[in-house]
Amino acid sequence: MRIILLISALTLAQAQEGNGQAAPPTCWIRGSADKLAERPSSLDSAAVQLGGGTIKLCYSRPSARGRKVMGELVPFDQPWRLGANEATSINVPFAAEIGGVRVAPGTYALYAIPGASKWQIVVNRSAQRWGVPIDKDVRAGDVGAGTVTTESLGAPVETLTLKFAPATGNATELVVEWEKTRVRIPIRRVSG
């Protein structure tokens, strides 16, 4: 199934190029693509059309598998790669604000510093890397950080899910859900 998704994404990218549209960048992976199916946390992506361009997110989806996630598997007050495997990355084809952090067009890594009621969302320049460690060398590439509030979910989400809310005007939200926690990261296109 994962290989089918990868092939579908490549086919879509080629079709968009043939229509004169710029294709969103492919997800960077460490190692060979034929080994992706062996990973316990699958590679996934999400995209949204916004302000005449496509924002694309790439991340890996760990599952709870009976473990307590927030505060244990994902410790509070420590940097977390917002997924598994490679760093979670986001490509914006225009100037934007991600969680209140202004960025130029390009590809960035996102990571979080979760807390019980608020998360710090960090935008980082080093997108093509393994997701851990998030040490002082990685943090030297931080562009900035914003804070979002957590929401409680009624039913637990077994596998980490990142998705975009429908765009309204020049804005959307990146919605993160796992276990019984949801956060919404605002994203908007900005001028110049």
Task: Describe the fold and architecture.
The protein is mainly beta. The protein has one domain (41-189). The protein has two helices and nine strands. β8 and β9 (171-189) form a beta hairpin. The longest helix is centred in the first third of the chain and has 17 residues, at 2-18. It is globular.
Strand order of the largest sheet: 1-2-3-6-7-8-9-4-5
Q: Describe the biggest sheet?
A: 9 strands, antiparallel
Mean pLDDT: 88
Q: How would you describe the shape?
A: globular
Query: What is the element string, with H for helices and E for strands?
Result: HEEEEEEEHEE
| Structural class by secondary-structure content | mainly beta
Radius of gyration: 16 Å
**Whole-number total of structural domains:** 1
What is the β-strand count? 9
Helix proportion of residues, in percent?
A: 10-25%
Q: DSSP helix count?
A: 2
Q: Return residue spans where pLDDT drops below 50 for at least 5 consecutive residues.
A: 1-20
How far apart are the termini?
A: 40 Å
List its traits:
192 residues, mainly beta, nine-stranded antiparallel β-sheet, 2 helices, 9 strands, 45% strand, globular
Short structural summary:
Helices cover 11% and strands 45% of the residues. It is mainly β. The termini are far apart.
Secondary structure topology:
Blueprint: H1 2-18, E1 42-50, E2 53-61, E3 88-92, E4 96-98, E5 101-103, E6 106-114, E7 118-124, H2 136-139, E8 142-164, E9 171-189
Antiparallel strand pairs: 1-2, 2-3, 3-6, 4-5, 4-9, 6-7, 7-8, 8-9
